[in-house]
């Protein structure tokens, strides 16, 4: 009974449940300090999913990290689950 409320009564609310992403930052807001256009990043988008989208708009506080030049996108996404979760907690701890 609860599942239809979460996943949609007549049609799915979310078309795909993929949250791991990797890509290149196209543009940033004027107050963003951690990232710049052209940065290769990996992360997770667990609030709205949709990581297969061509473009995603995420906040600077999202679990995102710059991919080192020595890693491919595929290699970077492989560490996404544990690494992005840890990154979120480390940033939260650093702010407190």
UniProtKB/TrEMBL annotation:
Name listed for the protein in its UniProt record: Alcohol dehydrogenase-like N-terminal domain-containing protein
Origin: domain of life: Bacteria
SUPFAM superfamilies listed in its UniProt record: GroES-like
Source organism per UniProt: Paenibacillus woosongensis
InterPro entries assigned to the protein according to its UniProt record, in alphabetical order: ADH-like_N, GroES-like_sf, Zinc-ADH_QOR/CCCR
Alphabetized PANTHER family for the sequence: QUINONE OXIDOREDUCTASE (PTHR44154)
UniProt domain Alcohol dehydrogenase-like N-terminal: residue ranges: 17-65
This protein's UniProt keywords: NADP
Pfam families hit by this protein: ADH_N
Taxonomic lineage from the root: Bacteria, Bacillati, Bacillota, Bacilli, Bacillales
């Amino acid at each position: 009974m609860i599942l239809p409320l979460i996943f949609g009564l007549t049609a799915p609310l979310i078309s795909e449940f993929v949250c791991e992403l990797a890509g290149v930052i196209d543009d940033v807001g004027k107050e963003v300090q951690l990232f710049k256009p052209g940065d290769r990043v990996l992360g997770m988008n667990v609030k709205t999913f949709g990581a297969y989208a061509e473009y995603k708009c995420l906040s600077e506080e999202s679990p995102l990290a710059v991919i080192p030049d020595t890693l491919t996108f595929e290699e970077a996404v492989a560490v996404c689950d544990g690494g992005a979760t840890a990154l979120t907690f480390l940033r939260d701890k650093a702010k407190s």
